[in-house]
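Feature request, filed as a ticket because there's no other form

It would be nice if the structure record came with a short human-readable summary line next to the tokens. Right now we just get the raw output. Example of a typical job, pasted below so the devs can see what we mean:
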Amino acid sequence: MDKQRFKAILVLIAFGVLLFTLAQNFALAWRAFWKIYGIFSPVVAGFCIAFVLNVLLRVLERRVFAFLGRSPHAAVRRLLRPVSLGATIVLMLGAVVLLVWVVLPGLQKTILSLIQNLELYLDSAQNLLHAIDRNGRQLFNIQLDWEMIFEKLKELLTPGDNLVETAAGVTTSVIRSVTNLVISFCLSIYILARKERVGQLATRLSDAIFPPKVSRKIRHICKVANNSFSNFITGQLTEAAILGFLCFLGMKIFQFPNATIISILIAVTALVPVIGPIIGEVIGCLLILIESPIQALLFLVFVLTLQLIEGNVIYPKVVGRSVGLPGLIVLVAVIVGGNMGGMMGVLLGVPISSVLYTLVLDWLDGQQPPKEETET
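Raw output as currently delivered:
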């Protein structure tokens, strides 16, 4: 028995023992996993941010600033990565600032208007519910004692030990989250600046741990996964842009107010699966509700129809084409992923299905016998 085969057998035995131990102590292993993840979560987030930003970085390096890489001067060629990376950071931060600058004023106006007219809205809703009852029966007998409500609010907002502890806990959590986000972002910039070295290190580790054949297979799977997830991100951004444009066009045709703000909000929230579109629709309805309740209802019908078309036509075509999946498999991946893992399952269902689909096709191609040469 040669050394490589003996090493592979030892690795398989160790892997089997590890799986058996984890199965016997699953609850303990699960808690330990989340404990370790909590410690390394900024690092994981940094790699995730770097992976997303790398999609834009590659476009800038290969298309926008490619002339720097073709320069005959070595000093100019070395500027390709710093210039592209700097442009990536500027574009990302500019998009965030533009989004906040455009959307926040409208949201602030909506919230202030709702707070100022809350009593009027509740009274109008109560009168509407009574008017619906054509037989004259009192289906809803809602009497609001505003003095009692404000007294309860006063008691709730009175400083106390629990309130102070809660405020301190929330403040600590916010500070920790912001700090971790800054650390993750800085780490992602470093990863992007040295991504070739990171890849080389991962390759050396794979070659040192696994046999050559297994290592090559792992690299192939990682390459397929990288392409699938990158194409999925590109498809998601394209689909969100199409949805935002169609929303803006429809709102202009039907003369809904706040078309620009709501369309941008719909496009951004569409990047978040399941819950994202719902958030965009609710905020859009609130923005329109201030000016016209009838238009808010019509907008809800319009955006639900648009979302139905997007989910069954645009999403399978755009995202499916970007990851190389038929539209039917995309729909099945979204449904099955949502049932298995909720929002995260919907988000990861399509790229994981693309990886499996590509690996299965590669396996089938490898199983086909070579074509026999025909005699001439």
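Something like this underneath would help us a lot:
The mean pLDDT is 76.
The two ends are 46 Å apart (CA to CA).
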